[in-house]
Design brief:
Blueprint: H1 2-17, E1 30-38, E2 48-58, E3 64-72, E4 77-86, E5 93-104, E6 115-125, E7 131-141, E8 154-164
Antiparallel strand pairs: 1-2, 1-8, 2-3, 3-4, 4-5, 5-6, 6-7, 7-8
């Protein structure tokens, strides 16, 4: 009982000095949209366009980011999660190289099966705004299953604008 009475002032003091904990923003993280270009069918030589949804989560105090892109067109979808190593050149410009996996449906511009992907790219934060311009390439290895392209590499280029959060 006496110990409880002695502990009460220190507990009260600790509660009075406690500061609220606030979540910190992940500077550099964004979600956005844009356009992707690549060859859906390399045999006809026609360049195809897709819509792109792109997201980046920047790990604070680390040169790594988790990224994801979804490539959509009228008859296919591809989901490409990657982890990137970011190289800040300035407060606005950040090139990166990433690796991951492409989960592609038939007719996608990055192949028609699950494959390993390299993703070189760059992010540019527009000063005094929350906007980011992103651009990258996806190189999918062993991306095709069957036919003349069996085991071939697929390449696509994406660009767009993101909103930082």
């Amino acid at each position: 009982m006496a110990l409880g009475i002695l502990a009460l002032p220190s507990i009260s003091l600790g509660i009075g000095l406690a500061q609220p904990v606030l979540a910190q923003p992940a500077y550099g993280s964004y979600i956005g949209g844009g356009l992707g270009l690549g060859y859906e069918n390399q045999d006809n030589g026609q360049l195809d366009a897709t819509g792109v949804i792109s997201a980046r989560y920047k790990f604070l105090k680390s040169p790594f980011s988790a990224r994801a892109q979804v490539l959509l067109d009228r008859d296919s979808i591809a989901v490409v999660p990657t982890v990137s190593y970011d190289i800040p050149v300035s407060w606005q410009l950040e090139p990166y190289i990433g690796g991951g996996v492409a989960f592609a449906s038939n007719g996608s511009i990055i192949g028609d099966k699950t494959s390993f992907v390299l993703q070189p790219g760059v992010d540019y934060a527009i000063p005094n705004t929350k906007l980011v311009i992103f651009g990258n390439a996806l190189v999918a290895f062993d991306a095709y299953d069957g036919g003349d392209k069996d085991g071939g590499t697929a390449v696509s280029i994406q660009t767009g604008v993101g909103w930082q959060f």
